[in-house]
Specification:
By secondary structure, this protein is mainly alpha-helical. The chain has helices at about 5-25, 65-105, 110-145, 155-180; strands at about 55-60, 60-65.
Amino acid sequence: MIDMRRITIFAFILLVIIYLGSKYVLIDEKESPTSHTPQRQIVKELDVPGQTVFNSTKIGHVEVSSVEEIKARYQQKFEDLEAKTNEKIDALFNEAKNDYQEFSEAEDVSLKDLYKKYADEGQKIEDETEAAFKALYEEMSKELVSNGYNGAEAEEFKDKYLEQKELRKSEILEKALSIVRN
């Protein structure tokens, strides 16, 4: 005799296997009416903590960068500008120091003329740096806005620049006074 209970269980298991198999084997994922195309794909970088968390993303044909990526890119540019400016200032300061030592030995040139000469050259360096900073700052603000972020994200760079500028001026003044006093 055939056991009906075993046949029923066997038939039920066979139906489940056929159903699951047909669902996963017979349906093409590309043609599935329920599949969606991703609008925005974000790829996480987890290699280096403290670094950028998100890669730039392409939306349509436009590449969008994260705020951190933009800031990091411009941070390097601002640091390069600072380094170049410091090189120019240091060279000018050393030249002024040498001229002052020569001035103290030979009294052909007045101290006022010497001061004016180097104050004017220092002002030129400051004006060039201001113009370069302003251009970089505006470029960064525009890039932030074009990527959908607030342009005010760049304010921290402006604040740091102004702070560093005042510190550098104070430092130069202290060095100059120490040379004149000695």
